[in-house]
Specification:
- InterPro entries: Beta-PGM-like (IPR051600), HAD-like_sf (IPR036412), HAD-SF_hydro_IA (IPR006439), HAD_sf (IPR023214), PGP-like_dom2 (IPR023198).
- Its cofactor is Mg(2+).
- With about 240 residues, the protein is of the alpha/beta class.
- The protein folds into 2 domains: about 140 residues, HAD superfamily/HAD-like (Rossmann fold), CATH 3.40.50; about 80 residues, Orthogonal Bundle (DNA polymerase, domain 1).
- It has 10 helices and 6 strands.
- Strands 3-2-1-4-5-6 form a 6-stranded parallel sheet.
- The protein is globular and about 55 Å long.
Length: about 240
């Protein structure tokens, strides 16, 4: 492997959450699979839910955008609805809320801990005085960070709640990474972004980050490079 860049040299480092800082991507994957498998079976939708659907349509996107993308791939159209929709309602928002019920149940039952390598890197960056932020599409980001015991390490949290309130476009659009840099007070061109999703890598690259690190937790190293990652690693421990 070529020599890795020194992340302490950047003005700021902005991390995705699920699959980068914590293994919550696995919880999300399980929740999506469980919910869509049951939904597609009850609706008679073909093909059935596949693991690849997570990476192609859901990973890194805001919850409702992910639902819309996956249903569109099956030529299924339902009303968008409203974020206040009950999880039993067959709207984009209702279906997204249904998945979130499963996610929260698993998170609260099993808890979550940060990846050791990711925590080691965060501690190194903190010690060096590098400003840090989380850039997550999830509305559960603050709860996950709290359960994982690391919320105090990130003065800026750009999550799905903020994105929705400010009407920011979902990843892969550059909006959330661009806004997060603004909130952190850093120039994207002199900052680093760390992502594990194709959509997130494209978002950071489009926002003009000086370094985009791809963490391959299953999305595929070459696919992350094709999306715009400058360097791809299996674990952030290599930077710590």
């Amino acid at each position: 492997m070529a020599e890795l860049p020194d992340l302490t040299r950047f003005d700021g480092v902005l991390f995705d959450l699920d699959g980068v800082l914590t293994p919550t991507a696995e919880v999300h994957m399980h929740a999506w699979q469980s919910m869509f498998t049951e939904l597609f079976a009850s609706w008679g939708v073909e093909p059935a839910y596949r693991e690849s659907d997570y990476f192609e349509h859901l990973d890194g996107k805001k919850r409702y955008d992910g639902v819309a993308s996956l249903l569109r791939s099956r030529d299924v159209e339902v009303p968008w609805g409203d974020p206040s929709d009950d999880p039993s309602v067959d709207t984009i928002c209702g279906i997204g809320n249904r998945k979130n019920v499963v996610f929260e149940r698993v998170l609260r039952a099993d808890g979550i801990a940060p990846y050791p390598g990711s925590l080691a890197l965060v501690e190194k960056l903190q010690a060096a005085g590098v400003p840090l932020a989380v850039v997550s599409s999830s509305k559960n980001a603050r709860e996950v960070l709290t359960v994982a015991g690391i919320i105090d390490r990130f003065p800026v949290i750009m999550d799905g709640v903020v994105a929705e309130s400010e009407r920011l476009a979902s990843k892969p659009a550059p909006d959330v990474f661009a806004r997060a840099a603004e909130m952190l007070g850093v120039d994207p061109a002199r900052s680093a972004a760390v992502e594990d999703a194709h959509s997130g890598v494209r978002s950071a690259a489009s926002a003009g980050y000086g370094l985009v690190v791809g963490v391959d937790r299953g999305a595929g190293a070459q696919a992350l490079r094709d999306a715009g990652a400058h360097v791809v690693v299996d674990d952030l421990a290599v930077f710590a």
